[in-house]
Design goal:
Blueprint lengths: L1 H40 L18 H7 L2 H33 L7 H9 L6 H11 L6 H8 L14 H26 L3 H9 L4 H12 L1 H16 L3 H7 L10 H10 L3 H30 L1
Helix pairs in contact: 1-13, 2-13, 3-7, 3-10, 5-11, 7-10, 7-11, 8-9, 10-13, 12-13
């Protein structure tokens, strides 16, 4: 009987590979190959980087980048912004998902779900262009509304003191719907009987969230945390559309700084900078994943 089942099992394996191999090939061609090519270019002299036989200079580009004060400031700004962005997005998404999952909202749940997910599928450039207009100091709707309330004007993207907040608001609007969706998917498979038992035992709402719901949301927290870290460490589009790295270099994040160097023909330094960011993203994401898995164990 086992011999009769062998061809069937073998056919199932071949069907799996038939579907998986095209995607694996695409990943190798458009994922791993550009990374390897970028690493190769980072080891060459910029003036010869695009030639068939470039001049290799070893780690000279990396030394130049790591001793560049603008890059160090850019790296600090990137890490600082990432910390705030990850915390803000996950906190808002978690609170919103728990609220939607509760009985506090009745028939309007579908509307609120759609309203929060629509920005995710909105084109980045179009969405951020609207936010740039909203934060405009001359005719922006944000300051017009603040003026009606009699409050001092908001600096928005024109002030180094407020540009982080302005960019963060725009990115939260665009990305948070995805994190809410992941939390809602996890909440849908949580064991409600545990929460009901805790309620019968006299646990408060906060105690039920902290000791019953949150432990069951660990898979979603790990997924969202890793994805958010990757997402915000490589923040780029919002900077190009809204701030161009300003004001005074406040949003000159690593990805945008590398883009500027590449645009200037400094290919070796630009790809070295991109490679450093890649290794930082990979290391931080892996550490976050391992930390989440260790906590679940």
């Amino acid at each position: 009987m086992s011999a009769a089942r062998l061809p069937v099992a073998a056919n199932k394996v071949w069907v799996f590979y038939a579907f998986a191999l095209p995607f694996a090939a695409l990943t190798l061609i458009f994922g791993l190959w550009p990374i390897l090519l970028s690493l190769s270019v980072s080891l060459t002299k910029s003036a010869t980087a695009l030639r068939p036989e470039p001049d290799y200079v070893g780690l000279a580009n990396y030394m130049t980048v790591l001793t560049d004060p603008i890059f160090l400031r850019s790296l600090f700004s990137t890490l600082l912004y990432t910390g705030f962005a990850v915390a803000a997005n996950l906190a808002f998404a978690l609170a919103y998902a728990i609220l939607l999952h509760s009985t506090l909202i009745g028939p309007g749940k579908t509307f609120f779900k759609i309203a929060m997910f629509l920005p995710v599928v909105t084109p980045d450039i179009a969405g951020y262009a609207v936010w740039r207009w909203l934060f405009d100091q001359s005719f922006g709707a944000v300051n017009a509304f603040i003026e009606i309330l009699g409050l001092p004007p908001f600096g928005g993207i024109s002030s180094p003191d407020t540009v982080f907040a302005a960019v963060l608001i725009a990115e939260l609007w665009h990305h948070v719907g995805f994190y809410i969706l992941i939390f809602l998917a996890n909440l849908a498979i949580c064991d409600r009987s545990l929460e009901e038992a805790a309620k019968i035992d006299g646990a408060t709402r906060w105690q039920r969230i902290r000791f019953v719901i949150l432990p069951q949301l660990r898979p979603a927290l790990v997924i969202n945390g890793v994805y958010a870290i990757i997402q915000f460490l490589k923040t780029f589009t919002v900077v190009v559309v809204m701030t161009k790295g300003g004001p005074n270099g406040a949003t000159n994040f690593v990805s945008f700084y590398a883009y500027r160097l590449f645009d200037q023909g400094r290919y070796g330094e630009a790809t070295a900078m991109a490679s450093i960011l890649f290794f930082i993203v990979a290391a931080v994401a892996l550490a976050a994943y391992r930390l989440g898995e260790r906590g679940r164990a």
